[in-house]
Amino acid sequence: MPLVTALLLAWVGGLLLGFAALEGAFVALVLGGVLVTASWTLLERRRVIPALLVSGLAAWGVATATKREDDDCARQAARDVGWTARLDEFAEPGAMVHASLERCHARLILFVASGSAQAGARVRIIGSVRDRLGPRSDRLAIENAAVRQLDPPSLLMRWRTRATASVNRVFWRDAPLARALLVADMNGIDPDVRDAFARSGLAHALSISGLHVGILALALTLLGRMLGLTRAWADVVTVAVLATYVAMIGAPPPAVRSAAMLLALLVARWRGRPTSPWATLAVGAAFPLYDPRLVLDLGWQLSVIGVSALIASEALARRLAQSHARFHSPWLRGMLASVIASAASSPLVAWHFGRFSLIGPVANLVAGPVIGVAQPMLFMGLALSALKPVAQFVGDAVHPLLWLFTWIAERCAAIPYAALDVTPDALGALVAGIAVSAMLAACVMRHPGVALATSAAAITLLVWRPLIRAGAAQTELVMLDVGQGDALALHTRGNHWVLFDAGGASPGSDEGARTVVPYVSRAGGDVEALILSHPHTDHVGGAPSAIAALHPRRYLDAAFAGDASAYRASLVAARAAHAAWHRVMPGERMLVDEAMIEVLAPDSAWTAGLADPNNASVVVMVQVGRVRMLLTGDAETPEEEWMLSHGGQLQADILKVAHHGSATSSTPEFLDAVRPRLALVSVGAGNRYGHPSADVMSRLARAGAQVVRTDRLGTVVVRTDGNSIEVNAHGDRWTLAPRGAAARAPP
């Protein structure tokens, strides 16, 4: 390992340790900076240890100062009522969008109440800060945000917008996946598909990284040689095209790092100078020298760790090939690289996604050739988008490859025990980082004994102290992403469950079996009851399979049969599972551990004259301590008026918005009575009904509710201790203070 690379890794390690003062997760990521370097140098290059220590300590000081600066800025921003920022996404009333504060590096999540602005626009925001987001002191949640656009998006963002429009036009059937692979936009990918890629160990393939840039570079170089260009001119054209492409997609850090590595390799080749792969990695990984915050970017971390793993695996393969001829096999070398890369990235993936993929090495080996052919074709379709017939031909030609890529991810994810769902803490993440770091060091060392022993000891500790936890430390209300349907699950501190609906079912798809059962089964615990809101298929379709697998003790509904055959099937399944059936009535209560569940509607006299099952929805209030959650099924305006006229206490902190946000529900009068602070909308992406209604989203925002939607965020987990409320949605985490508490600034 060159000295420059060792010093840079020590610098990165020092930055990570400095930021870890308030970011316990990143202690684990020292694997790239401290342990690999230390393992290498302590045994083989003792003389440079002082230089490494100086580099690491200097970086630690820089990170500490940077963190203090960001904290001060966020603390001041939390006292303000207006901010200037850049938007990450399109803002409209009822949306939850991300933004970057202009005057410093604080990040904002906006719950938009009024106004609209383009993605990438410079905006003025008026609102109130409720709290910081989770452990990140430089992230703020802004409620009742009024957004006014000041300046249009930057030139790079406008290029990105035009490129996105071209991708949508050329790859219309595969637009969400194509946008992820070409312009680093994963927002349109179905949450189930994202989950399948995460469980199969292929999540890294959904974002622009060194893999994608490397594939394009190879394809462009080969194309240039086929067209008769010299090697030098082919390299020049490749660099020019890739630089334009990286700029066009907004210059994400992994892509910039890969382009810089490529440029360093080509310059060395032009000058006839030998290059070390570690030195080339250093060129690409040196960006934290300019902006130390870059070490906190997940894409940059995965990119650097991935390249380090590939270098280490190649070094190991060369050493093994000296004594075992079969390691000259490209297939065996590819398998070795896949295993080491998957293991090296596992602490990062486990921390950020809560999963440890066991099938990852195999999935990457199988999917690699597919993405290797598909990526250049995708780029070709984008580059030729102005020639519509040609671009459309390319778009149609790549469709089978993208389908196969997704199929591989879904099939690998469906294999039993393909991935472990984990809840790592800082100590577990650190131990995992030690194991991986020592493993990488052993791959490149001539005398790997100590490194191997260190890795084995850390793995033994991980096995002895498992990172998988059962039960819930707090009460959880989970809005499961079941597409255009409803399925909510209440998980108590006593490890009991109450299910509210079970999603839909159609030929070839059963959300009960696909979503509800796996989620509950992974956490463990007994199901006390299934409460069915009403017998429409998008609510009851998954109930038969959920009942058969989970064996709830009770099955509660309003006995309004409707015409859904799935409802009868659910009753048959309940009888077979020996679940006691009961018809609910207003005023009935059920206590499950700390959660009191009270039925508010419907009345049997009311349902006797109904033709629409929506207005016979079972409406319940769940109370945990001071926190109240109102679950409304598909109740429409008539049932809302019935509840208002019967004088029930409807005020709630959390509202499960009725009928997927349809305009037939959530009247202003009803919202005035409920006064929700958090609104949960279970809705399918791109559904044919046009749900949720823009008017309802605006109404909720004006009522002061933070709106979260499954079509944009996937499964949403709400936790409460009976006093405060914590929301986990799509990687973001924030806290709502108790009702009546003033918006508070961070200390």
Describe the structure.
With 747 residues, this protein is of the alpha/beta class. The protein contains 25 helices and 25 strands. The protein folds into four domains: 107 residues, no CATH class; 73 residues, OB fold (Dihydrolipoamide Acetyltransferase, E2P) (Beta Barrel), CATH 2.40.50; 265 residues, no CATH class; 262 residues, 4-Layer Sandwich (Metallo-beta-lactamase, Chain A), CATH 3.60.15. Helices cover 48% and strands 18% of the residues. The strands form five sheets. It has a nine-stranded mixed sheet with strand order 15-14-13-10-9-8-23-24-25, with helices on one face. Strands 16-17-18-19-20-21-22 form a seven-stranded mixed sheet. The chain has a five-stranded mixed β-barrel with strand order 1-2-3-5-4. The relative contact order is 0.09.
Contiguous low-pLDDT stretches (5 residues minimum) are 22-39, 132-136, 467-471, 741-747
Task: Please give the largest β-sheet.
Answer: 9 strands, mixed
Structural class: alpha/beta
Query: Average pLDDT across residues?
Result: 82
Proportion in helices = 40-55%
User: What order do the strands of the largest sheet run in, or round the barrel if closed?
Assistant: 15-14-13-10-9-8-23-24-25
Shape: globular
Q: Please identify the oligomeric state.
A: single chain
Strand content: 15-25%
How much is the radius of gyration in Å?
27 Å
Terminal CA distance: 44 Å
Count of individual domains: 4
Number of helices: 25
Number of strands: 25
